[in-house]
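Input/output pair, single chain:
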Amino acid sequence: MRKPVLTIAFVAALAASAFAREEQKVNDAQIAHIAYTAGQIDIAAGKQALAKSQDPMVRMFAEEMVRDHTAVNDQALALVKKLGVTPQDNPTSMSLSDSAAQKLKDYEKLSGHAFDVAYIQNEVAYHKAVNGAVSGMLIPNAQNKELTDLLETGLKLFTEHQHHAEHLAATAH
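Output:
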């Protein structure tokens, strides 16, 4: 079980460093892309968990991740369309996508309890990194009030996700 924990730490470190590189350098189009990308990553991880896990609690959590992140991403797409903004790819969103693709590939090799533990531990680490970036970088740099409001609403929801994941991680045997 060491490899998943190392992978978790690596992904969390990559996410944190990706966000740190962009600190104070992002515009609304980039913020929109980062936020959307972070949501897509959690949707993909949730779908992978639904395909692999047999644990009812893990599956319920994964369904919540897919449902909630899809809803927020749909709101984000509607907002950028309304504002006429084209989300702009950037080093942070690219780094997040690359590290997430590797994580999904690594987790594909796991099964059963090992997968469940790795998935939940990663969700804790990922939500901590993303929530820190949303509160510390994305919200402070957002210029559009509606974008800021959406990020703040998302942060409340994603903080709940983090707490839920922490609870599952603490109760995993």
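The domain at 2-171 is CATH 1.20.1260.10 (Ferritin). Residues 112-141 form the longest helix (30 residues).
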